[in-house]
Amino acid sequence: MDCLFCKIIAGEIPSTKVYEDDAVLAFRDINPQAPEHIVAVPKTHIESANDITAQNVKCVADVWERIPKIADKLGFGKDGYRVINNCGENGGQTVPHIHFHILGGKKFTDL
Ligand code: AMP
Ligand code: ZN
Hints:
By secondary structure, the protein is α+β, with helices and mostly antiparallel strands. It has helices at about 5-10, 55-75, 90, and strands at about 15-20, 25-30, 35-40, 80-85, 100-105. It has a single domain (about 5-105), classed as HIT-like (HIT family, subunit A, 2-Layer Sandwich), CATH 3.30.428. A hairpin with a 7-residue loop joins β2 and β3 (about 35-40).
């Protein structure tokens, strides 16, 4: 499949992995917007939030369940962090494989 994040999951494109299990991969964003900027993805290809269904929502829930664990493992969980999902063109989504940005290591003041 011609999907950047599927290729990262398959190991065809290198990434700096910070967490991996059978359902979820998290890696450092190549263009960080905060001192800590992690991208967490389900290993199952779901294009965007608009493609979440009753059948595949477990894949999304799996990512969410890992997010606090990833933040804790990297040492910024206790201080708090921001999680962002960009959906579609107006949302600013550039990679059409659903993902959650985990941003930490600083205090965010604006929305
Ligand atoms: P979005 O704009 O929400 O679709 O987020 C896509 C994110 O993927 C951006 O923050 C990019 O910096 C990041 N990104 C693109 N290519 C790579 C890559 N090869 N490794 C890590 N992060 C990447
Ligand atoms: Zn994909």
